[in-house]
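Before a computer can learn anything about folding, someone has to put a protein's shape into writing. The three-dimensional part falls to structure tokens, numbers that each stand for a local backbone shape. The protein below has been through that process, and both of its lines are reproduced in full.
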Amino acid sequence: MKGPLNWWRSARTATDVHPFATDVAFATLLGCFAVSGLLTAVETGSQRPADWLGVVLVLGQTTAFAFRRRQVWWSLLGVVTFTIAFWIADYATNFDAFTLLAVYAATVHGGDDRRLVWRRVGLAVGVLTLAVVLGVISPDEDLPGIALFGIVTIHLTAAFVGEAVYDRRRRIIELQQRAERAEAERELLARQAVLDERSR
């Protein structure tokens, strides 16, 4: 029987070998939670009940999120677009985490040009914030003002956590490369020492 540590290593190995399959599986799991949250939510105020359009929008979020490592920016654009459409339609839901995780993923996997990453992630957060602002000030909506603070805070936190994870991974890669170079230099010196010894 595998212990927790062995199970974790096996899971990590499977993730490394089949990254896209892992992404699809995780997105599907989130999609199931999101559809369940949509279907079980109790609408209040101006919110509308679940219907086929709401399910389609959730499936759109799920599909876009599945490509968060293969097509980072298209994935983020898709998630943000479907989420804003979901918000504008004003569906009641008990689960809404796609944008949070998409911002995190884009910050982690966006590449080495960190200025470009932060411009694009910042634009995504800005668009989401604008959508919430319009919801707060709209007379037809009953969205509380605290929602604006919540949206900005959680998405910026996700971006900062993503940056920390990216920086940690980059440092680990640099340490591995240094270790490999040091090992190669040691092997070269050992070979040179053998050649010098033979030439004497």
